[in-house]
Backbone:
């Protein structure tokens, strides 16, 4: 591959990543407008996010395997086409069910494209220096998409309508498809006879959807059904010829512990992004564009810390101390948010709190390095796929659970005031709900801290020094998406 062709191919992959990550963050500031237009309840509104996340998270591992079987280029093109078509459907949606169906299809397309993008890049750039630079560009584009998405989503929603946050993907997707067919290298794949665990993928996807229905609706039968489906998925992985998640990966306490910490941390942080955007618009009466700009400092500080400081700190102090420090900052963030007043001042009450999101910029690179260090070399790809999957699942669980708690608390405060004959304005009731959700988020971070301290112990080498299988210099590499505090 020539240098020019390689750069063009990298631009195509980066553009697709930008489109997918931008679509995730662009939705958060448009949610009040979507709710007002399509009539979602406060709890049901979380499905605008969760329909996407469940499909994306649960299908990543299957999509990666299908890329091996059918060819990465083929799956990338198919995924981009599905995502583009689903974006067009979301852009013209006039009812809640149609929008949710489109969001689910967007998640399917995203999983197909994202699961193979990095593999295509590694296949194209074989020289270590070029590969490192390409990965840095690719990953930074994904991180930038999250920041751009919040601001662009607000501008489009205010200037045009929320429909345009999805329509904007269509020309980008068509351009990516046109360029990808010309510049991406073709690979034949292993063929479908090599096998893929479609049954396992169906079980885990169904289990997650049913579980989220149970959380949002408070349906114990749905929750019980979810547990049964997930148990069936685990049993399937123990017996399948080509399992999605070979259970041997969980024998490593480091891998298991890192994924547990990630689910808890990302659940808290992603709920923060959604709920704070709702607080700014519904309580503080910010416009969509103003909300995106108000939350921009969080995106900037996370990017600056993860790109500029985390690697040096990890090299000097080790992964676990940096992770614990990051989680401690996040705990302070949620404790501060749990005391948000109804009449908050942005410079006094919000801006200092947003700067505490630097903890996410410290915690995620350290957590990634720890999680990967516990995997055997031949399980590195599996560990990476699992880590990306639990990230998406944490986002879905956080959005569903904490948004539901906030809505229930708001209704309780409002109805309690009515029965007592007193008056509580809607802003006060909403703020009470958000405070409860942020308090629960603080509890999740506390549990993550306990797991990090007790389970993620540093490895001790034969010379008595701490050892790590993943170099600290690699720990700062930004992920394909900067989840949680500044992503979907």
Residues:
């Amino acid at each position: 591959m020539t240098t020019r062709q390689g750069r063009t191919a990298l631009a195509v992959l980066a553009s697709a990543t930008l489109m997918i990550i931008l679509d995730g963050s662009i939705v958060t500031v448009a949610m009040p407008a979507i709710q007002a237009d399509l009539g979602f309840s406060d709890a049901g509104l979380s499905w605008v996010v969760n329909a996407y996340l469940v499909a994306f998270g649960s299908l990543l591992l299957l999509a990666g395997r299908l890329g091996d079987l059918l060819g990465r280029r083929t799956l990338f093109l198919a995924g981009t086409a599905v995502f583009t078509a689903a974006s067009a459907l979301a852009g013209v949606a006039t009812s809640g069910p149609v929008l949710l169906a489109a969001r689910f299809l967007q998640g399917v397309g995203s999983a197909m494209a994202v699961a193979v993008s990095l593999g295509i890049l590694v296949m194209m750039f074989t020289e270590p220096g070029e590969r490192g630079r390409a990965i840095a560009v690719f990953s930074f584009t994904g991180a930038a998409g999250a920041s751009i998405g919040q601001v662009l989503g607000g501008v489009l929603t205010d200037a045009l309508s929320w429909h345009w946050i999805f329509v904007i993907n269509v020309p980008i997707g068509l351009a990516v498809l046109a360029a990808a067919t010309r510049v991406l290298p073709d690979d034949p794949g292993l063929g479908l006879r090599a096998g893929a665990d479609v049954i396992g993928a169906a079980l885990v996807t169904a289990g997650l959807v049913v579980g989220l229905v149970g959380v949002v609706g408070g349906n114990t039968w749905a929750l019980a059904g979810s547990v049964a489906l997930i148990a069936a998925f685990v049993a399937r992985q123990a017996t399948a010829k080509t399992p999605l998640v070979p259970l041997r990966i969980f024998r490593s306490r480091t891998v298991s512990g890192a994924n547990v910490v990630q689910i808890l941390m990302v659940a808290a942080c992603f709920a923060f992004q959604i709920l704070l955007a709702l607080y700014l618009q519904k309580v503080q009466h910010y416009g969509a564009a103003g909300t995106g700009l108000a939350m921009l400092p969080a995106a900037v500080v996370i990017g600056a810390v993860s790109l500029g400081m985390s690697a040096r700190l990890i090299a000097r102090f080790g992964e676990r101390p940096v992770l614990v420090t990051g989680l401690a900052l996040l705990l302070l963030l949620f404790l501060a948010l749990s005391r948000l007043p109804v009449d908050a001042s942005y410079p006094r009450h919000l801006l200092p709190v947003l700067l505490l999101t630097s903890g996410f910029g410290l915690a995620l690179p350290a957590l990634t390095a720890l999680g990967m260090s516990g995997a055997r070399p031949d399980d590195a790809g599996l560990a990476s796929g699992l880590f990306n999957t639990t990230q998406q699942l944490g986002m879905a669980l956080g959005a569903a659970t904490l948004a539901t708690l906030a809505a229930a608390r708001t209704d309780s405060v409002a109805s309690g005031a009515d029965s007592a004959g007193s008056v509580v304005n809607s802003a006060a009731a909403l703020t009470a709900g958000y405070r409860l959700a942020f308090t629960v988020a603080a509890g999740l971070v506390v549990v993550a801290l306990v797991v990090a301290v007790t389970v993620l112990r540093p490895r001790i080498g034969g010379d008595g020094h701490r050892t790590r299988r993943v170099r600290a210099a690699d720990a700062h590499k930004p992920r394909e998406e900067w989840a949680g505090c500044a992503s979907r």
In short: The CA atoms of residues 222 and 344 lie 39 Å apart.
